[in-house]
Amino acid sequence: MRINRLAVAAAAVLAAALSAGCSGGSGGSDGSGKPAASAAGTAATGPVTLTYWTWVPNMDKIVSVWNQAHPDIKVNVSKQAGGDDAAAKFLTAAKAGNPPDLVQAEYQMLPSFVAADAVADLTPHVSAAKAEFGPGIWGLVTLGTEAVYAIPQDSGPMMLYYRKDLFAKYGIGVPKTWDEYADAARKVHKADPKVYLGTFSSKDPGSFAGLAQQAGAKWWSISGDSWKVAVDDEPTRKVADYWGGLVKEGVIDGQPYFTPEWNKALNDGRLLTWPSAVWGPGVLESNAPKAKGDWAIAPLPQWSAGESYSGFWGGSSTAVASKSPNQAAAARFAVWLNTDPQALALLVKEGAVYPASAKGGQALTEPPAYFSGQPDFYKTAAEIAATARGFTFGPNVNVTYNAFKDAFDKAVENKSSFSDAVHAMQEATVADMRKSGFQLAQ
User: Do residues 125 and 226 share a domain?
Assistant: First the structure.
């Protein structure tokens, strides 16, 4: 199933706004807006050359292995900056008719690419790939439909990072439920008012989205030819009220992540946990060097005892441009890159990527240096990743995330209702989609 034509037309407004001022790219076109070799979706006769936009470090080394083994399908890597700028640049190139054949697409940006008709439905070319991924991660590239818009590359399953030495000092166990986490937060802060079990960050909507996923939230879904928006659904309000209550009570700090103050609190042992993703070790190593060897990981606390769920914070996929004249060849490379054991090992070694593929863990034999005392780090991470719930991002996630920052900044500062902040996110998201012409389900 494809998103309806009304959504595609309306997305032109979104794409133009997002990509204003960005330059186009190269590859896949002769510059006239028409495919360079043959009709989109078919393979060109004879050897083909594909262009791949990505920000993964050392991707050229990884691609060289493919090129040596596949002289008929050569891939040229074009290094990009990543983030919103990369998404805007790709949308500009797609609109101009000269996108790259392949593009690294963050999961939250993929729906914008689909709505703009900028990426291809790869279903005819990747039917066997589904078995290589867990249902949660696969759902991020299908948008809840039968179509496949990309191949998952890396993922950010969330887990609880905690200071095992300080847990022992304050006499608390690793919380199995969020109620236990709240009790531990009260105990720690009562023992030392300068110490907090954790903090709530109003600057990181991706973290909040991952926690909402764990609770079962479904912010966007597709119903027939329409989008359904439920950012303020019951699971999200539950998550918001939980953290809002702890902030109001004063037992959880309200300083954002990745600030100098947050870094210092981590390094000084005044923050004992961080609900984060598998990429967390690099952050901790840089910002809390004094605590090397003192941190450990465990599954996120659960909302109900006996459950086992997680969510995602971050991650990206490999998509094929809808205007690529060589979609079959591009899809073949995308599947190799993200499922072949040799490619996965290279992604880990050269690209510092945590592969989304279920086989990716086989390439992760040594724990991060910062977690040398936890040899089963990646085994635990893989088990947690398998419990991550599916989630569909919408075509205007940037609007939703900006609304999060505005509303939760005020809620944290005033210690006001976090549920009201979630409702503000819902209203901003719906208003923007209506303004852009998206068809919304009632």
Answer: no
Read off the amino acid at residue 346.
Answer: L
Q: Which two tokens mark 385? A: 């990743």
pLDDT tens digits along 24-66: 333 333 332 323 333 344 444 469 999 999 999 999 999 999 9
Q: What is the CATH number of the domain that holds 42?
A: 3.40.190.10
3-state secondary structure of 159: strand
Whole-angstrom distance, CA of residue 19 vs CA of residue 249: 43
The answer to whether residues 256 and 232 belong to one domain is: yes
Give the up-direction half-sphere exposure of residue 35: CA atoms within 13 A in the CB hemisphere.
17
Range of the domain at 185: 157-311+392-436
Round to whole Å and give the CA distance between 9 and 437.
8
Which of 95-109, 309-323, 361-375, 391-405 has the weakest average pLDDT? 361-375
**What does the pLDDT read at residue 38?**
32
Q: Mind listing the pLDDT tens digit for each residue in 288-300?
A: 999 999 999 999 9
CA 150 to centroid of chain Cα atoms: 14
Q: Give me the number of domains the chain comprises.
A: 2
Q: Cα–Cα distance between 138 and 152 in angstroms, integer? A: 7
66 belongs to a structural domain = yes
d(CA 161, CA 32): 51
